[in-house]
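Dear Dr. V.,

Thank you for agreeing to look over these. As mentioned in my earlier message, I'm a first-year student in the group and I'm still getting used to reading structure tokens, so any feedback on how I've presented them would be very welcome. I ran two proteins. I've put each sequence directly above its structure. The first is here:
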Amino acid sequence: MKVAVVGATGLVGGEMLKVLAERNFPVDELLLVASERSVGQKMNFQGKEYTIIGMEEAIAQKPQIAIFSAGGSISKEMAPKFAEAGTTVVDNSSAWRMDPSKKLVVPEINASELTPQDKIIANPNCSTIQMVVALNNLHKALKVKRIVVSTYQSVTGTGKKAVDQLMNERAGKEGEKAYAYPIDLNVIPHIDVFEANGYTKEEMKMVNETKKIMGDDSIRVTATTVRIPVMGGHSESLNVEFEQDFTLEEVYRLLHETPGVVVVDDTANLKYPMPMDAHGKDEVLVGRIRIDETQDRTLNMWVVADNLRKGAATNAVQIAEYLVAHKLV
């Protein structure tokens, strides 16, 4: 099994390598791929030193799987070239997510749709992943009608430059800025570019990707996405209206039975999910579960996950695991 990690030097690329090692993914030969400026640099993986190579060399070596975290424009250009060489690409960017010819996959929900013909597979947006994982069993049993979601997203979702900005501001140092405003001691209600309807691209990703992953265009989603000065994970406040009536006991049972979900909900002992709890974990943590007293068949819940792991690297590796286990590569 020859595996390429494209964008190996980035935050998510580094996390992908960590997850591959932790999950004992069957890598016989590893190709670490990055931009031309990084070619020739050395990186370690499981005690062995590797030399970073460029795109064309990686394509020539025809890996069975290439896990991409190199940005949308690079994915648009290079993923088809890998696919033409027979490689199955799992892409972490937004480049292919809404392409009707490409699958948008969260393994717990829709990996069974994958076939050997799927040569470019899209990894969803980090905020969408944790939300749909939390809602998976609830949707099957009660049918989600409408979701109102507000996100509280870690600076790690922007990348190293944003982490550096936060740390520099905390230390009182000048440095390069990822955001138009200070992020320390601040909240920025703006992730990605604004679109004509007044929503940001990140907000519309959550709207459109949720429908595609869950295979249900009737689900209505409205989102507000916000960047906050934390590291460790993204948090979401969900207000979910269902078509069916439910009891809290039923909701707890469905959540406990949902693959990838851990319920952390004991307010008497001040137990609820926080980014510091999700950091380094693959599970989606769900808490503050309560019935909305203003509207029938509606639930409030708080959902937290490590955006670099289940929101990106782990989900991509889980897709690759599914491909190998079901002999699709």
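The second protein is here, in the same arrangement:
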Amino acid sequence: MELDRILALDQAHIWHPYANPLDPGPIYPARAARGCRIELLDGRSLIDGMASWWCVIHGYNHPRLNQALYDQLARMAHVMFGGLTHEPGVRLAKTLVELTPEPLAHVFFCDSGSVAIEVALKMALQFWIARGEPGRHRFLTIRSGYHGDTWHAMSVCDPVTGMHHLFAQALPKQLFAPAPNCRFGEPCPDSEVAPIAELLDCHRHELAAVILEPILQGAGGMRFYSADYLKRVRELCDQYGVLLIADEIATGFGRTGRLFACEHAGIAPDIMAVGKALTGGYLSLAATLASREVAQTIAQGVPGVFMHGPTFMGNPLACAVANASIELLLEGDWQAQIRRIEQGLAAGLAPCRGQPGVAEVRVLGGVGVVELERPVPMRALVPRFVELGVWVRPFGRLIYLMPPYVIGEIELGSLCAAVGEVVAELPDLWARDNSP
């Protein structure tokens, strides 16, 4: 199918994410991907700085992950998880329990990161129902957070930076503490913890759980905060008898320099959600892990079962490739990969500091962020990056990089150089941009 026809059919029928259905802006048909490069239908090759929304950690078209899919496909592509089980799912659950902090011991598979958050919230609610406290039905979180696009997940996203303010009147009303201003690597003073402590004290009898993204807040602002803050929140949850949910969907499997971001603070949540990099970007799969106490409490309550069951829960293809992806990660020196990326991002993005329109440049692990003083001119910026041979998709006031772990130094340097070049052009791009 020729390029023009694909684009015409796309415009006629496809609704892209976060896009106007009638005028989505520039769309680039891809025909192949390998390593850290996406090949467009017109023949251009782009260095991927997004890891396809942070999940393709091993690069594209990896032979070992391909083989895992082929091998599983020869056995079975899918079987319902209600009343049945299978080796790939059992093996993956065992691995996740071994890798995540104690006392997480029970794994509930689901379809996507947003659904994993829905499951986590429902687990917390059913935990308190089983305990005879159904009034504990609200959640406390911190601003600048983002937990997904499904219904209750939207309710715990920042109502301003979380992109869901349009639905504010219909969503359940949750509680929000200020985002911590103590940065990663810094101590956390009492004044930073006081607001969330006050909310816990005032609302303890109606709170089911605190939910947050540990250390790295993703799509709500790409902020890195102090491990001491996370540790203090865990202590407060224990003090007030409130569950702690850790959203490790973006941070899990090494992105921040630890296998899971909770490890920076040496804490364990009561419930943890993982996704994105779980399958190395091959298939949609997520998991919600719960402590023994959470699982046993729900089991002893009424009706004695957890009331959730996705059709494609524990899909064997997805579990098989997830097992291969985790094995590949652990067999390699992923810590060295992340350190190398961190050093490359720090050096490569440093020239952006002090440029007109730049508020801050920050780097943590495999994440590099250039925060601007005003929203990015999306319709001008993305085509300019494509002209420079890179795939970078900014949002809000952020131009950021989260490349595959296997990216080489030359490719990483090219990504950073492209960001630097575009940042230098920002005043002119802002002047030319007509997007709302």
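From my reading of the second output: The chain has two domains: 3-61+333-432, 75-331. The first strand starts at residue 30 and ends at 34. Does that match how you would interpret it?

Kind regards,
E.
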